Amino acid sequence: MTPNEEQTAFYEQLGRCIAQWSHVEDGLGSVYATAVAPPNQRRVHNIAAQAAFYAIQSPEVKISTTSAAVTFRLLNQLDEKGRDILGLWRPLMKKIGERRQRRNQLAHFQVVYNAEAKPGRRCMLRPAIFNPNAILRPIKSFHCPELQAIARSFGRSSEDLRIFVYSLALYLGQCDEDADFEERLTQLRAQANARRETLYWSRSLCAYLAEEPCIPPICTGP
Predict the structure, then answer these.
(1) Does 108 reside within a domain?
(2) C-beta separation of 137 from 120 below 8 A
(3) How far apart are CA 21 and CA 154, in angstroms?
(4) Would residue 115 count as lying in a domain?
(5) Crossing angle between the packed helical segments 3-36 and 47-54, to the nearest 10 degrees
(6) Residue 222 falls within a domain, yes or no?
(7) Domain count, the chain
(8) pLDDT tens digit string along 187-214?
């Protein structure tokens, strides 16, 4: 790969990341409009709520506004199905928050070109060279493979939000059941359950280690 080809590929992947993040924000907007709409009202007609959401410029505020709307809408009428949907929302929001940090890095890091690096590693996105705060934390840089992975992760998050919108709208009587979405909703529930189980065992291990700092010896014989 020539230097010019590598630069073209690098900026192409960076552009894909930015474009994919816009779909994440679209998904958040759909969730917000669904959460604030009256029961049995089709979300597509909630134009005022959608306009208010898109007037927000900060990704952080879009996420926190959406999360507040969903949480209090579900807590206001919490039943078994509502608890199930809230159980989907919390790990999904945690994941979106992590993606948002990546989005901020893409927006504020600088592109650096190193002609001496190996092909495929000459272009990278890294913290601003003259930013002294970068000294206080490990420097994270992104090359083409990392940007490809980030774009894919944004795409998965936007799809997860679409599925969540369906589950919330169905619960609130704003849409009809859809077999295709039902299948994907089952997959999203399985992912959420797996994350909760992993978190449970992680916390259990931390609690055990806090109580038992010394690992008991292994008995190898009589």
Answers:
(1) yes
(2) no
(3) 6
(4) yes
(5) 140
(6) no
(7) 1
(8) 888 877 776 555 544 555 455 455 544 4
